[in-house]
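#struct-help
A.M.: can someone run this one for me? Single chain, 220 residues.
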Amino acid sequence: MARSSSPDRQIAAPPTVIEVFADVVCPFTHIGLRRFVQRRTESGRDDVRLRVRAWPLELVNGRPLDPELVADEVDELRRDAAPEWFAGFTPTRFPSTSLPALALADAAYDHGLELGEQVSLELRALLFERGVDISRPEVLEELARENGISLGGTRRDAVVEDLADGRRRGVVGSPHFFTPGGDFFCPALEVTHDDAGRLLVRAAPDRFDRFVDVCLARPR
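D.P.: on it. Structure tokens below:
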């Protein structure tokens, strides 16, 4: 007896991957990632995923970030670009290093794009919205346990490899996005200084719209 043919099955297209080189302690990245995820959700485009790679500023600059400098950046962001965010940020609980957190995020991507993105976002939410010191081993151990990640698989080498790859690709700072339609440095914000050298940060809606349009463009 002849077999009946099975109905055609629609094969899901692979996700579009947006790479971004960034430090977990960079407040500008926190804004860019959150706004991108909001727009992606509004557009119903779960097929577009972020691959957040390490751009460890303490290695780029040769020293960890100054908590007071980051606090100044957060204050400026609250003033205009993101008044509703950074609710729990506390400079006295700023991480002494970002390298273990970046290594944990890299390990999460071994379990898939979705989990890697989720952990990358959660680390930033812990720091900037809940005031948690994400350099503390017990914090990272709990986050790893909640997500089924083995901390034994985290490696500083992976962070250094991302840094080297970012330098080869021309990364200029955190965050630097690489999309199928080109690369964008800090697309959500306009960062300048006044004549006295004071930091000025403003939202850049037109540039961010162009960036999102490129990211969410459907493959032909």
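A.M.: thanks! Helices lie at 27-43, 57-61, 67-81, 99-109, 113-130, 137-146, 156-169, 205-216.
D.P.: also worth noting: The chain has a mean pLDDT of 92.
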